[in-house]
Amino acid sequence: NSGQISILSNHIYDNSTFEKYNYTGININTTNSGGHIIRGNYIGGSAPFASGSKFNMQLATISNILFYGIYYSSNASGQPSVISGNVIKNINIPNYTLYQTYFSGIYVNNGSNHKVFIGEENKGNIIGDSSDTTSIYLDGWGVDHILFYTNGAGLS
Predict the structure, then answer these.
(1) What's this model's pTM, rounded to 2 decimal places?
(2) Cα distance between residue 12 and residue 25, in whole Å
(3) 91: number of Cβ within 10 Å
């Protein structure tokens, strides 16, 4: 990747019956640029605005189940990047007793050279839905759920 990437106001959902066991809604993985913006996106459900029926993860092969709503990784210097105003909800990961389940709403893995702003004033990220306690439903053996993960020195 090179140059600044803006991912703005998208609706990422799935109403198919295809099996999915490794899923990333938005993925930026770069070593040579900064100043990226991920803002105002909806991830989950089967229709726009993460609405409709739940986005269902399904076991396709003998494998663990992995879900990243937003995955961001950069060790670039330059302008700070921003992840704000995103909504991740309406997701179902069922029980598969032999395989582990990993869920991360927003995963940031950045090096010490790069600064990332998570949320802005009046534009925080929302993971789940306060009016629906099953908005993100994880059921299974070895469930590892992280709503927000960071690894790096340049976070704000």
Answers:
(1) 0.87
(2) 7
(3) 26
The residues with which 91 forms a beta bridge, in sequence order, are: 55, 136
Closest CA to 62 of 23, 97, 29, 110: 97
CB 125 within 8 A of CB 106: yes
In 3D space, the residue among 71, 81, 80, 144 whose CA is nearest the CA of residue 109 turns out to be 71
29 by Cβ neighbours in 10 Å (0-12 / 13-18 / 19+) ranks as: exposed
CA–CA distances in Å: residue 122 to residues 35, 90, 144: 20, 23, 29
For the residues 77-101, what does the mean pLDDT come to? Answer: 83
Q: What is the mean pLDDT of residues 102-127?
A: 84
**Token digits for 12?**
């990422």
Is pLDDT at 38 greater than 90 in this prediction? yes
For residues 30 and 110, what is the distance between their CA atoms, to the nearest angstrom? 10
C-beta of residue 67 within 8 angstroms of C-beta of residue 36: no
Spell out the residues 6+ positions from residue 25 whose beta carbon is closer than 8 angstroms to its own.
Answer: 12, 41, 43, 44, 68, 69, 70, 88
Strands, sheet with 42-43, edge to edge from the N-terminal-most edge strand: 11-12, 42-43, 87-88, 126-127
